[in-house]
Structure formats: C-alpha cells, structure tokens
Amino acid sequence: MKRERIAVIDLGSNTFHLLICEIGPPGRWTTIHKEREYVKLAEGGLDRIDEDALQRAINAMLRFADLIKRYEVKRTRAIGTAALREAQNGSIVAEKLTSISGIPIEIINGQQEAKYILDGIKSTLPRLDQYGLIMDIGGGSVEFILFEDENVAFTGSYKIGLAVLHSIYHRSDPISASEIDELEKGLDEKLGTLKEALNKIPGYYLIGASGSFEILNEVLPRTVASKHWAELEFKGVMDILDHGIGADLETRKHMPEIPEERLDYIVVAYILIRYLVKMKPPEKLFYCDYALKEGVVEEMINEYLD
After folding, report:
1. Is the pLDDT of residue 192 over 60?
2. Partner of 287 for a Cys bridge, out of 26, 70, 142, 217, CB 3.0 to 4.6 A?
C-alpha cells in the first residue's frame, strides 16, 4: 500500500520553504524533499510587497507546485506569515499566488505562527531540564516562545524581522556605532514584554530556529549533536557576533559560513542575537532545524490519524 504524501509551504518574509514528506506508522513521517528559495518578500519593508518581490514569489510557487505534482502529494498547506499579514497588499498577493499556483494560502497571525514553531521544535528536541526560549528570526517578524515542559510561559511576535531592521538601521557599510546604538534603543522599546518574562525566571536555554542560527551552527563547536538539533558551545559566540557586526560587505563575502543570500541581513541578525544574549545570557545554546513547517506537518498528521 502506497503511503500518503503531504506538503507544507512556509511563505516567509525572506525565504519560501517547501517540505514534502510521507506519512509512515502512526505519528511518524519521513522527509522526501526539502528546499528553500530566497524570495525576499519584505525586502522593501512590511508596508507593501513590490512587483519584483511578487514576481519572485510567483516563480517560487509555480516551481513548488510542479514539485508537489511530480511527487504525487495528496494534501498541501501553504502558510503565509509576517509579510503577507502586514503588507497593505498582502491579501491581494496571497490571492494572486493562490490563483496562479492552484495552492490555497493561509495567512496566520503571530500567535499561531509561534504555536507551529513550538510544536515543530518540540517534535525533535529532547526534553530540557530548564526553561527553553525559542527565537525564530524571520524577514518580517521575530517569534519568541518561552516554555518549560508542557507549560508555555510566554509567546511574543515582534515586527523586528531582518528586512525591517536592515531597511531602517543598516545605512552604512560597515554599520556605524550610531546605527547600532539606534537599533538597540529600538529593541529596548519593542522587547519590553520579553525582558519582563525573562526576569521572572532564574535561567533559560536559548534555542535558535532560523538561518541566522544555522550560520552559528556552522562555526561553533557542538557539545551534543543529533540529526535535527545540536547543543552549541556557548564560549566564543560573542566573538563571532562582534566580528560579523563589525565586518564590511567585502569581508563578509569571504566568510564561508555566510550564504550569499544572507550577506546583507546577517549584520542586523547578529546585533539582534547579541542584544538578547546581553540582556539575559542563556545557560546553554541550541540550534534546531525544525520550526514552523514541521509544526504544520505534526498538525496534518494528527488530523490524518483522527
């Protein structure tokens, strides 16, 4: 008997992700195909998706639709996040992408996005003996989820994604001290509720779930590692962040761990991570390559089993 194949498309503000998987024994699934495309929907900010970004999105969705057909997928869900929910023309863009690709797009709110990220990460990360703080850095927004076992102590979705921060603050190369100061003051204003939540607990482990943390995963030694997650050695992280923040574009181009598509945004990403680490240093640092799309897969499988 042929097993059912399902697909999830995560239409992020910077990157579109496609995950095609096959449902196995109850509660289990196997990845058949996985890829991403840098669409940069929020390249010009969150106010409006421009024509160039729309065309990149159309091209990606048509290619993904072809792959979904080729792999004989039975059920597909496409999830729109910050750029599609915040842009003035976000719903119009979603409708156009749906019409052209034939794949209905669901635009979700920040809380639902955080839930899927949490479900995805918890499906692979082992149980922690401390609070975990998930940090998922997107192009349009950043999601934070603070949890302990089954208890979710705090969730927050903030409009401080990398495309947003880059367009507002990164005006010179290398970024100037005054621009960094301005950015950090902006984070002070935005992240007050997160700071309050962290001040209520004795400590936490930081779990990074984004391309920015993927880069740290490439350069930091791993103290423990599994297929989809790793505990990274925290010593040395500040040196890496400081070096990346201070580098100009030409220097960043010669850092092999930074993909070409992330050369512009990595500076504000590192400032954002450094800000959190300084605000309340984590006791441990984890990287996990599961996030929103894997959380949606878990939900789809539960619906299939029901």
Report:
1. yes
2. 217
Alpha helices in the chain (DSSP H): 51-70, 82-86, 90-101, 110-122, 162-169, 177-190, 192-199, 211-219, 237-246, 249-253, 266-279, 292-305
What does the pLDDT average to over 65-87?
A: 97
Tokens of 45: 């900010």
Mean pLDDT value across the chain: 96
Is pLDDT at 1 greater than 60 in this prediction? no
Which CATH entry fits the domain spanning 5-110+294-305: 3.30.450.280, 3.40.1190.20, 3.40.50.10140, 3.30.420.40?
3.30.420.40
Overall average pLDDT of the 15-40 stretch = 94
Q: Mean per-residue pLDDT for 23-36?
A: 91
Residue among 99, 11, 102 nearest 57 (CA): 11
Label the pairing between strands 284-288 and 205-208: parallel
Instruction: Answer whether CATH 3.30.420.150 is correct for domain 125-288.
Output: yes
Element (H or E) spanning 146, and its range?
A: strand 142-148
3-class secondary-structure state, position 209: coil
Give the residue extent of every domain in the chain.
5-110+294-305, 125-288
